[in-house]
């Protein structure tokens, strides 16, 4: 209970202030526990930060359980079936990125993308790599002549459209002329994402 509460609070603090800026004293106070609990459970601030990376990876994997299931029989799919699977994965990721609950952990992920530490390796091994491999498998059914690296480049750019919904939230709101993204804007972005992915993959299929 204390360990889980500490990680939830720490994700918020590390997300908003970064590793250097976050205070273990403030984290312990916000979690309503003693600072010694951090040492006991995690060995210190660095251990807590790395545990947060593992926690984020586990949360994403749990949120994307249905998406991961779409990868299981990828190699038996027709190109059109694979396209539909990619669309479903994209929408599932978009829903997660549009959810306000993703704000704190997304800040950590974005920061680790810019200045990777051991925490990034844990995020990669914990969830990102499997997502990449799953999408790559689906894309290989759509674009059988593409190399492995070309498939990965395609995957990165397809799903970069999803990431911007969270990592560039201020620009998205400015562009759509709103203060916050509501249901109307979320629906519009999800529909636009589906159309974009469909257009790109149909074009790739004919190459």
From TrEMBL:
InterPro entries: Homeodomain-like_sf (IPR009057), HTH-type_TetR-like_transc_reg (IPR050109), HTH_TetR (IPR001647), Tet_transcr_reg_TetR-rel_C_sf (IPR036271), Tscrpt_reg_YbiH_C (IPR015292). PROSITE patterns: HTH_TETR_2. This is HTH-type transcriptional regulator YttP. The keyword Iron does not apply. It comes from the Bacteria. The gene is yttP. One of its GO terms (molecular function) is transcription cis-regulatory region binding. Signal peptide: none annotated. Keywords: DNA-binding, Transcription, Transcription regulation. The keyword NADP does not apply. It holds the Pfam family TetR_N.
């Amino acid at each position: 209970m204390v360990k889980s509460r500490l990680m939830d609070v720490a994700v918020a603090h590390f997300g908003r202030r970064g590793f250097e800026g976050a205070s273990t004293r403030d984290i312990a106070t916000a979690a309503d526990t003693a600072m010694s609990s951090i040492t006991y459970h995690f060995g210190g601030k660095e251990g807590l930060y790395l545990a947060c990376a593992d926690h984020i990876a586990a949360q994403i994997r749990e949120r994307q359980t249905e998406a991961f299931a779409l990868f299981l029989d990828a190699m038996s799919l027709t190109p059109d079936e694979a396209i539909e699977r990619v669309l479903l994965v994209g929408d599932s990721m978009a829903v997660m990125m549009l959810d306000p609950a993703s704000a704190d952990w997304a800040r950590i992920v974005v920061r680790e993308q810019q200045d990777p530490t051991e925490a990034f390796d844990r995020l990669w091994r914990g969830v990102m790599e499997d997502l990449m491999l799953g999408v790559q498998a689906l894309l290989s059914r759509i674009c059988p002549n593409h190399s492995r690296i070309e498939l990965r480049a395609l995957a990165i750019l397809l799903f970069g459209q999803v990431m911007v919904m969270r990592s560039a939230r201020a620009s998205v709101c400015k562009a759509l002329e709103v203060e916050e993204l509501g249901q109307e804007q979320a629906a519009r972005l999800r529909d636009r994402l589906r159309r974009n992915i469909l257009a790109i993959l149909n074009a790739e299929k004919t190459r």
